[in-house]
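TA notes, week 10

Several of you asked for a full example with nothing omitted. So below is the full record: structure tokens for the whole chain, then the designed sequence directly under it. When grading your own attempts, check the secondary structure regions first.
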């Protein structure tokens, strides 16, 4: 039942429809940014009177802010099962975390990524070896195995835990096993996993994990890069400035070690407190969150599957394991118009387009692009039914605002 689930803000938000009526907003865009958890908002609000600089001042508030910041870091470390010597750097988001890792990769190391990745994981590397979009799990593992066999020198494999376009889970354990067999390091982008399933860096035996607060109910602009200390300790500071140094002389500088090396400038203490609250809440709620989301997802997918015009989009086939989202097209209805109609006529927010993973999006649905409905704690069964009903109506009569003919022509 919903009552045992962590609550989020905005669950009863009324939004205006084009018709002049209002509807409670159905937020099927959790994968882009999840709503704020009530526990997160409460933690942030309770902390705000105490909010001050961290690691910079010596007043009481600053000492308290510093303590809360470091306590939050410990909570996040526990949430992802960090090893004792792992660094856990608080960043702006996943994009920032991956960029930090990219800058820390030692010269001469090849980074291997699949072209199916989100741009944040696809683009920031210096010396990158891109593998084609895999056609199946077996193909993915075979192509990675091949690359690891033939590439000389040190290798870092960067892979997402969950594909952000389709929600499909990647075969992480097998990928880790391949990396270990060939002596490669592995970095996991957990941006689309962190809100839906636990991830444990030690149990999974991966070298780095990155994720974003805003996709796991913790706004305020925070993200995480956690992992092996050696590259991060040797890397040029991600941000050069106050807090990242132990000594600055005339023309000389000694950089700090530890996470501080990469966290110069005013710390996002509220973001850290918020993220820690989200971690603590999720950690005690997985037993209700995971089955709840799987019920919603099954209901959504089976509802859509009954609509003849709907085609579910997936990389490894519709039976592949997935979390929290479904991507689909509707025959005869342009995806941009479908997304607009869902918003304007039904108060349903979805995403359409390239999903910042253009090669994969184009591979899956060509120029048509797909619509992605992603869910989480802000979604109820009633929202799912509303979405399915709306897609059915639109697929039968076309959106009332626009209609796309078979030949692609459209008119208002
Ligand atoms: N990786 C994946 C798999 C994502 O889905 C996203 C967000 N769409 C990102 C990275 C980037 O996250 P952020 O925008 O928080 O940096």
């Amino acid at each position: 039942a919903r009552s045992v689930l962590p609550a989020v803000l905005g669950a009863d938000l009324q939004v205006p429809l084009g018709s002049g009526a209002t509807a409670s907003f159905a937020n099927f865009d959790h994968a882009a940014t999840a709503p704020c958890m009530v526990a997160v908002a409460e933690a942030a609000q309770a902390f705000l009177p105490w909010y001050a600089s961290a690691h910079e001042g010596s007043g009481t508030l600053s000492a308290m802010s510093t303590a809360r910041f470091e306590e939050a870091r410990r909570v996040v470390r526990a949430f992802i099962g960090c090893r004792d010597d792992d660094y856990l750097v608080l960043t702006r988001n996943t994009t920032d975390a991956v960029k930090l890792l990219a800058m820390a990769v030692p010269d001469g190391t090849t980074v291997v990524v699949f072209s199916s990745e989100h741009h944040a994981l696809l683009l920031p590397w210096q010396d990158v070896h891109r593998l084609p979009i895999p056609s199946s799990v077996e193909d993915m593992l075979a192509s990675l195995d091949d690359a690891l066999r033939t590439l000389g020198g040190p290798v870092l494999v960067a892979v997402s835990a969950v594909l952000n376009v389709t929600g499909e889970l990647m075969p992480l354990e097998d990928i880790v096993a391949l990396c270990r067999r060939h002596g490669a390091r592995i970095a996991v982008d957990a941006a689309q996993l962190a809100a839906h399933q636990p991830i444990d860096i030690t149990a999974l035996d991966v070298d780095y994990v990155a994720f974003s607060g805003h996709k796991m109910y913790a706004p305020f602009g925070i993200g995480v890069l956690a992992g092996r200390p050696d590259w991060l300790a040797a890397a040029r500071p991600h941000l050069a400035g106050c807090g990242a140094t132990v000594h600055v002389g005339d023309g000389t500088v000694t950089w700090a070690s530890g996470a501080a090396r990469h966290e110069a400038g005013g710390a996002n203490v509220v973001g850290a407190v918020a993220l820690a609250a989200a971690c603590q809440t999720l950690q005690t709620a997985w037993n209700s969150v995971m089955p709840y989301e799987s019920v919603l997802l099954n209901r959504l997918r089976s509802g859509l599957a009954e609509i003849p015009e709907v085609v579910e989009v997936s990389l490894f086939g519709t039976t592949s394991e997935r979390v929290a989202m479904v991507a689909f097209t509707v025959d005869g209805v342009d995806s941009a118009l479908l997304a607009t109609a869902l918003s304007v006529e039904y108060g349903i927010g979805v995403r359409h387009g390239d999903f910042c993973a253009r090669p994969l999006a184009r591979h899956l649905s060509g120029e048509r692009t797909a619509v992605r409905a992603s869910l989480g704690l802000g979604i109820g069964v009633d929202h799912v039914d509303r979405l399915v009903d709306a897609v059915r109506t639109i697929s039968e009569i076309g959106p009332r605002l626009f209609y796309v003919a078979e030949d692609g022509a459209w008119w208002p």
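The radius of gyration is 22 Å. Use that as a sanity check on your answer.
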